[in-house]
Amino acid sequence: MRYWLLKSEPDVFAYSDLERAGTEPWNGVRNYQARNLLREMAVGDLCLFYHSNAAPPGLAGVARVTGAAVPDDLQFDPASPYYDPRSDPAAPRWSMVQVAPVAALPRLVSLTELRGLPAWQDSPLTRKGSRLSVFEVTPEQFAGALAAAELDLPDARPAD
DNA sequence: GCCAACGTTGGC
DNA sequence: GCCAACGTTGGC
To answer: What InterPro entries does the record tag this protein with (predicted)?
Structure first.
């Protein structure tokens, strides 16, 4: 199993919105590096749900990948802000995965706090200037974030 | 292929 | 609201 981090602006779509929705297509990603990572995700992978552009920014919850990458339908919708007229329907440019909530963190783990965790010293999140909205996190980073929030997630641990 | 201009991201 | 950093666009 692999671990990932997904950024979302809570004013637009917060972790609580994911809980309300039950399942959600992770669409609208329009960055090639992030898209390539979406395509690497497998059903069952776990994601840290990060609130960006928030006060304070930080990790709010854990989500699970429930559907592997498929073409992002919004790229073909002229009414969508994510419409991409240059995407060829025969070879769609943009992908999305499906995610579902697993657990809200008992408390938000702020970016400031993450910067203080040893496992998080090297990450796109703590690297200055990085704007990547989807990236892989190490098992140590994942476990460290959950420990900081005092969330025990039995099914997040690798099977013995 | 270069690179300046532009729009966006996201912390503060 | 500010602004640094980044990715993309488009002229040449």
So the answer is: 5hmC_binding, EVE_domain, PUA-like_sf, THYN1-like_EVE
